[in-house]
C-alpha cells in the first residue's frame, strides 16, 4: 500500500485554501466589500474543515486499522495504540502549542490595533486548546462572548478526541465497526445541528474511516472510477463537487437539517476519487506541484493564517496610524498576509513539523517493536 497519496495532498490544499479565504472575509479584511458580500450571499467556503475531517479519518484509519486488526494479544494492541498516540502527539502538539504561545505574545506586545483581542479571552482559549476541549468552548461562545485568536483550534480538538477514541471503538466493535460508522453518519444526516453538534462533526470523520475500510476490499478496485481518466470528465467532477460544496454551505441552506451531512458526503466523494492516486482530479503540471506543496504544509497554514491575518492588521495599523481602512488596502493586506503565512508555514514545516515527526516515528517504532508479534507494516502519511 502506498504511503503518501499526492491527490490527497491536493485535497488538503483545497481544504486549507477554502478555510483561509472564508476567514479572510472578516479577520483579514474587517471592512465590507460589495463584490465579496455578493459572493458570500450565494456561496461559502467553510466546508474545508469537513474535507479535512474526512481526509483525517481516511488517512489515520488506513494506517492504524490494519495494525490493530492484526494484533492477537491485548498487550500487543496496547502497544500499537500507544505508538499511534505518540506519533500523533509528536506530529501535532509541538506546532499547535508553539502558535498558541506566539498568539499570546502577540496579544500582549503586538496588539495596538486590538486585532488579537483581549488577553483574558486568549488565555482561556489557550487552556481549552491545550486540554483538547476547544470545540466545546467554541460552541459555548457562539454569539455570547469573545473566543480569542486561536478559535480554529476547535477542529484540532475534535480530531484529537477522535485519535483517542478510535482504538477503543475498534477494540469494542471489531467487525461491527462499519455498522457503527454508518449509524453515526445516518443519525447526523437527519439531525439539525445545534451549536454543540456543529463542533462534533463525527459524520465527516466516520466517512473517512469507512473509506479506509472500503479501500482494503476487492469491491474498491472494481468500483474504481476509470472514466475519470478522461481529463475533461475529471475536471468536470472536481469542479462540480466543489461548486456543490460552495452552494450547500451558503446561507440559503442555513436552516436545512441535511446541510452538514451533504457536505460530509460530497467531501467523501472527493476523498474516494483521490484515494486511487490516478490523477482523477485532473490537476497536472505546475498547479499540481503548487497544490502538493500547499497540501504538505496545510497543517502549518491552518495554524498560522489567523495570527498572520491579525498581525497584518497590526502592521498596517502602525504604518497607517489608524484602522480607517478601505478598498485601497486590499492588495497590501493580501500580500502582507500571504508573505507571513507562506514564510511561517515553511519555517514551521522545516524546523518544527518534519524533525519532530521523525523523532515521533522513532519513539513509536521502539514502542511497537516490542510487541509479541509484529503487525503488518503500513506506510503512514503526514496526516
UniProtKB/TrEMBL annotation:
Q: Which residues cross the membrane?
A: 45-65, 89-111, 151-172, 204-220, 232-250, 256-278, 290-310, 330-349
- Does the record carry Cell wall biogenesis/degradation as a key word? no
Domain Acyltransferase, chain residue ranges per copy:
6-341
Q: Which GO terms describe its molecular function?
A: acyltransferase activity, transferring groups other than amino-acyl groups
Q: Which UniProt keywords apply?
A: Acyltransferase, Membrane, Transferase, Transmembrane, Transmembrane helix
GO terms in the biological process aspect are: lipopolysaccharide biosynthetic process
Source taxon at top rank: Bacteria
Q: Which InterPro entries match?
A: Acyl_transf_3_dom, Acyltransferase_3
Question: What GO cellular component entries does it have?
Answer: membrane
Protein's name according to its UniProt entry: Acyltransferase
Q: What is the lineage of its organism?
A: Bacteria, Pseudomonadati, Pseudomonadota, Gammaproteobacteria, Pseudomonadales
Amino acid at each position: 500500500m502506498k504511503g503518501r497519496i499526492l491527490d490527497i495532498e491536493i485535497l488538503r490544499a483545497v481544504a486549507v485554501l477554502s478555510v483561509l479565504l472564508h476567514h479572510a472575509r472578516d479577520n483579514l479584511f474587517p471592512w465590507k466589500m460589495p463584490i465579496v458580500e455578493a459572493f458570500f450571499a450565494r456561496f461559502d467556503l467553510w466546508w474545508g474543515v469537513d474535507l479535512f475531517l474526512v481526509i483525517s479519518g481516511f488517512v489515520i484509519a488506513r494506517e492504524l486499522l490494519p495494525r490493530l486488526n492484526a494484533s492477537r494479544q491485548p498487550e500487543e494492541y496496547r502497544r500499537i495504540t500507544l505508538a499511534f498516540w505518540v506519533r500523533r502527539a509528536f506530529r501535532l502538539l509541538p506546532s499547535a502549542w508553539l502558535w498558541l504561545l506566539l498568539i499570546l505574545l502577540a496579544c500582549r506586545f503586538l496588539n495596538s490595533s486590538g486585532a488579537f483581542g483581549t488577553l483574558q479571552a486568549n488565555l482561556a482559549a489557550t487552556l481549552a486548546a491545550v486540554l483538547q476541549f476547544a470545540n466545546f468552548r467554541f460552541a459555548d461562545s457562539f454569539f455570547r462572548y469573545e473566543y480569542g485568536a486561536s478559535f480554529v483550534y476547535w477542529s484540532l480538538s475534535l480530531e484529537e478526541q477522535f485519535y483517542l477514541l478510535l482504538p477503543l471503538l475498534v477494540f469494542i466493535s471489531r467487525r461491527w465497526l462499519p455498522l457503527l460508522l454508518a449509524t453515526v453518519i445516518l443519525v447526523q444526516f437527519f439531525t439539525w445541528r445545534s451549536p454543540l453538534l456543529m463542533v462534533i462533526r463525527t459524520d465527516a470523520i466516520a466517512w473517512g474511516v469507512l473509506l479506509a475500510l472500503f479501500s482494503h476490499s476487492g469491491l474498491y478496485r472494481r468500483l474504481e472510477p476509470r472514466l475519470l481518466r478522461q481529463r475533461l470528465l475529471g475536471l468536470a467532477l472536481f469542479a462540480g463537487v466543489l461548486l456543490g460544496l460552495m452552494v450547500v454551505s451558503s446561507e440559503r441552506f442555513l436552516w436545512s437539517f441535511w446541510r452538514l451531512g451533504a457536505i460530509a458526503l460530497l467531501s467523501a466523494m472527493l476523498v474516494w476519487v483521490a484515494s486511487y492516486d490516478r490523477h482523477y482530479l485532473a490537476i497536472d503540471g505546475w498547479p499540481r506541484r503548487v497544490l502538493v506543496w500547499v497540501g504538505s504544509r496545510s497543517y502549518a497554514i491552518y495554524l498560522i493564517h489567523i495570527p498572520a491575518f491579525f498581525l497584518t492588521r497590526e502592521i498596517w495599523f502602525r504604518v497607517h496610524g489608524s484602522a480607517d481602512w478601505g478598498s485601497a488596502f486590499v492588495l497590501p493586506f493580501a500580500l502582507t498576509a500571504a508573505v507571513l503565512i507562506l514564510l511561517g508555514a515553511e519555517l514551521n514545516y522545516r524546523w518544527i513539523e518534519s524533525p519532530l515527526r521523525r523523532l515521533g516515528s522513532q519513539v513509536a517504532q521502539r514502542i511497537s517493536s516490542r510487541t509479541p508479534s509484529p503487525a503488518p507494516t503500513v506506510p503512514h502519511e503526514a496526516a
